[in-house]
Hints:
The chain is an alpha+beta fold. It has 6 helices and 4 strands. The chain is globular, with a radius of gyration of 17 Å.
Amino acid sequence: xxxxxxxxxxxxxxxxxxxxxxxxxxxxxxxxxxxxxxxxxxxxxxxxxxxxxxxxxxxxxxxxxxxxxxxxxxxxxxxxxxxxxxxxxxxxxxxxxxxxxxxxxxxxxxxxxxxxxxxxxxxxxxxxxxxxxxxxxxxxxxxxxxxxxxxxxxxxxxxxxxxxxxxxxxxxxxxxxxxxxxxxxxxxx
Length: 189
Ligand SMILES: Cc1cc2nc3c(=O)[nH]c(=O)nc-3n(C[C@H](O)[C@H](O)[C@H](O)COP(=O)(O)O)c2cc1C
């Protein structure tokens, strides 16, 4: 895919086919993530590739959270979201991005930004291979549960999760708040 087609074609995917993803493709995506820029070149990211029973447990944890905040939703919408939460949209894998934890706010910011750059590379590389993802932090509302399920030590901060799989479809792009960048860009000359 052409670079800008990848940028404009990446979307949050919440419904996946059950088709398996090859380990080779997953490693290619994570290699792209591993080539992100990083503060002090510390390359302070780690990736957990979760499937099987551990993935089911993450789904149970997210469904518990979603059960609370979808309580007032219309029934069909609620059922759809609950199904997404419980199965992560039926994706065969969930990738969890970690960084080094730090009590120093400056270092913490640097670490989070480095791992976020890796996360974005990951999403774009997946899109280039025809795979869908969805950057997610909602599941971290049960951070203790996620840590327990995946045995993540306190020395690591959880940055985000994404399901990974072949999408049912790539949704339409959502409208931009400021498509012509009239307010979001200022030229200081
Ligand atoms: C930091 C961050 C956290 C997000 N958390 C969630 C989440 O918990 N659940 C979810 O379904 N989508 C989540 N999203 C996806 C956004 O809802 C999505 O990117 C946004 O609606 C724009 O859609 P697009 O990615 O298709 O452009 C998150 C995105 C970001 C960047």
